[in-house]
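User: Quick sanity check before I run a bigger batch. Here is a single chain. Can you write out its predicted 3D structure?
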Amino acid sequence: MTPTTVRQTGRRSLPAAILTAAAWLLCACASTVPPEFVKRAEPGVTLTDLATRPQTYRGKVVILGGVIVDGKEQAGRMWLLLKNRPLDEDYVPHRDVTLRPSESGYYWVLVDLKGLPKAYRSWARVTVVGLVSDVQPLPHESTKGGEPVLGALYLRGWGYGNEDAGIWEERVDPNYLQSNPMEEFRQ
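Assistant: Done. Predicted structure follows.
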């Protein structure tokens, strides 16, 4: 191999290496939750926070994780009961390693059926962006009552492993959300 051949081979592989690194960086930096929701959300809120100080978070956007336990259709909406799964720094839900009973609890998510993927029942885990509501939760044999209720703004379903299994998003500009979109359920 001559010095010219080595130099030419190095030049050809450098652009390919740069493109590969750039593609990897873009994938690694891709957010699991759209930035407009992250900006609006109260940082670091946990299920324990919602359960112990619900009045503090009413009307505010929070991000939680969970596993769908049950779902009940009512008035064109789906009530999803989720068992909490704390989020990592990338908003991916995982099992609770602290084993605190309050973090292993349940919460409800109220979702508009329009656009909800049919495969949502097969989601292994869910990242939820929702507006904290004062609507009373539905009775369920798995719960004690009084669980927090979130009006869904964005759901990201996860398959087994970290593969993406589907996304649902409320088709309303989050900058123009009413303070409590659940008002109609109190009537």
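The CA atoms of residues 58 and 145 lie 17 Å apart.

User: Great, the batch can go ahead then.
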